[in-house]
Amino acid sequence: MNSRERVLRAINRQKVDRPPVFASFTPQAGERLCAHLGLPAEKAVDSFLSTRVSFTNTLLTLGNDCVCIAAGRPDGFTLKRENNIVIDEWGIGWIDTGVYSEMAIHPLEHAETVNDIISYNFPDPSGTDKFALAREQVQKYASDFAIIAEQECTILELSWYMTGLEKFLMDLLMERKYIFELMDRVMEINLAHIITMVEMGADIVWTGDDIGNQSGMMLDPDLWRKHFKPRMEYIFSRIKKLNPDIKIAYHSCGSLIPVIPDLIEIGLDILNPIQPLAKDMEAQSLKNRFGHELMFFGGVDIQNILPFGSREEVIQHLRRIKNIFGAEGAYILAPAHNIQPDTPTENVLAFFEEALKSI
């Protein structure tokens, strides 16, 4: 079977020759690997979700079974630069810290009223050129590879990026009206992106927001249920109305055990990224508790094993994860985040070597 057939069988809980694979790189890790393998020097794609859609050719050469697509920059937009800060289409300012860029400007940090949100110049989600690369990727790869429509930072993350985290959480707790206007505006823009990519023929929609950390949820579960669950249910229902057969993934780093049943209730198909060192996110436990209702996407440890383990430890870790999650299909093998610059090239190659073997 080719990669596309493998993924579609897996996400429909059918037997496969091996679990399908999807990995992504930080720019530093991707460029280093291209140089090591003598592959054409790919550069990271310039988009809000660049790490998920970059180094496509390199990753397919190594063994990825999926191609990720996402919205690009708006029509005619050029990144603005002020001193060492790069300002994107949302007005968020980013400063390069060496591995990732960190936020230096939150454009709505002084917002107080609904009118502050209504009057803000948000990106236009309708520009066709935002999806020029996505359309090219679908045309080039969809016959042989599964297509993932990437729209993480669906509501919570992008909203707090606009205001700053402390302000956002405090005003959410106080139920300031402008917060809900902001959340809904972000949600509708991102939903418009999703709809465009579903209409292109995506097989999986990748939604999500980081709501967990190493020791538990960063939001009170009831707060999430009150404000985010109904909005995610609305997004899921719109997606399924467009294509009842499409599969929906939800990404949250960290531990989110209390709300996994809620995500299942509103129609989630696939949980990602399964951060194995976070509280209660161990593979066998998750499979036992939720495997009859959820599929899994991720689970390979990028905090300890990939960067610091030996080659043999990487291989043994992958074998264990594949056997737990992948024995009956319903699994996409992936690292629990982008492969980071601290991961030795030898371990990246060991990951793909073992990933491409049958269980």
Describe this structure in words.
The chain is α/β, with parallel strands linked by helices and 359 residues long. It is built from 16 helices and 13 strands. Strand 10, helix 12 (260-265) and strand 11 (270-272) form a beta-alpha-beta unit.
Provide the descriptors you would attach to this structure in a database record.
359 residues; four-stranded antiparallel β-sheet; 13 strands; 14% strand
What order do the helices and strands come in, and which of them pair?
Layout: H1 3-11, H2 27-37, H3 50-53, H4 56-62, E1 66-69, E2 80-82, E3 85-87, E4 93-96, E5 101-105, H5 114-118, H6 132-141, E6 146-150, H7 156-163, H8 165-173, H9 177-200, E7 204-208, E8 212-213, E9 216-217, H10 221-227, H11 229-242, E10 247-251, H12 260-265, E11 270-272, H13 283-290, E12 295-300, H14 305-308, H15 311-325, E13 331-335, H16 345-355
Parallel strand pairs: 1-6, 6-7, 7-10, 10-11, 11-12, 12-13
Antiparallel strand pairs: 2-3, 3-4, 4-5, 8-9
Question: Which whole number gives the mean pLDDT?
Answer: 96
**H/E topology pattern:** HHHHEEEEEHHEHHHEEEHHEHEHEHHEH
Tell me how many strands there are.
13
Question: Which band does the percent of strand residues land in?
Answer: 5-15%
Gyration radius, to the nearest Å? 20 Å
Query: Which structural class is indicated by helix and strand composition?
Result: alpha/beta
Q: Given the structure, what is the number of helices?
A: 16
N-C termini distance: 16 Å
User: What is the overall shape?
Assistant: globular
In helices, the fraction of residues equals: 40-55%
- How would a crystallographer describe the biggest sheet? 7 strands, parallel
- Record the strand order, biggest sheet: 1-6-7-10-11-12-13
Spans with pLDDT under 50 lasting ≥5 residues?
Answer: none
